[in-house]
Specification:
The protein is an alpha/beta fold and 196 residues long. The chain has seven helices and six strands; from the N terminus they run βαβααβαβαβαβα. It comes from Nocardia jinanensis.
Length: 196
């Protein structure tokens, strides 16, 4: 199970421009998870995706969004947590959170386990999970704290497909639910409390 003493929470791209009718349901779960994580005094990395002129997203997909605020801003519900002690903000222009800067940050945090939540299951979450696996980290994808914001395809189907790919390529046991993470955090807090 998750080694909480060596784990960081990765909140992937929970930005205004990625929250829509298909992904909004995951935001409260992510906020609750990030809040509990901060209370456990474990590090959290918040990523923000930025698009740019002549990017592959423009040229190959025809997607033209998230060039700057307010679309690139972390959602209001997470803004305070994202600037709290123990939180780190990582900007990126690619799918993965494991950019050279991201890898340097994770190395400095001395973590082995990455608890991953965010948007979109089928893009940045999927790529981050696969890269974490290949870079030797133990990824844990929180099923109810990830969502697809797909509009060109059926978001729910794309989300489930991505989770299936993660289960197959990273390990079925690596896809967990937020109540399990909450339970582990509660057990850790109880073990750390002085006994009377």
């Amino acid at each position: 199970m998750i080694d909480l003493d060596k784990a960081a929470l990765l909140v992937v791209d929970v930005q205004n421009g990625f929250v829509n009718e298909f992904s909004a349901h995951a935001v409260p779960v992510i906020v609750d998870l990030a809040t509990r994580w901060a209370e456990a005094a474990r590090p959290t990395v918040y990523t923000r995706y930025w698009n740019y002129t002549n990017s592959p997203w423009e040229r190959l997909i025809g997607w033209k969004a998230l060039y700057g605020p307010p679309e690139t801003d972390v959602v209001d519900e997470l803004a305070e947590l994202a600037s709290a002690p123990g939180s780190h903000l990582l900007d990126k222009t690619v799918y993965t959170a494991l950019t050279p800067e991201g890898l340097d940050l994770l190395h400095s945090l001395d973590v082995t386990d990455l608890v991953i939540c965010g948007i979109a299951t089928d893009a940045c979450v999927l790529k981050t999970a696969l890269d974490a696996f290949e870079f030797g980290y133990t990824p844990w994808i929180v099923r109810d704290a990830v969502a697809s914001n797909a509009t060109r395809h059926r978001a729910a189907e794309i989300h489930e497909s991505a989770l299936l790919h993660i289960s197959r390529l990273v390990g079925a046991n690596q896809v967990i639910d937020s109540p399990r993470v909450q339970e582990l955090l509660t057990e850790r807090a109880a073990a750390a409390s002085p006994k009377l």
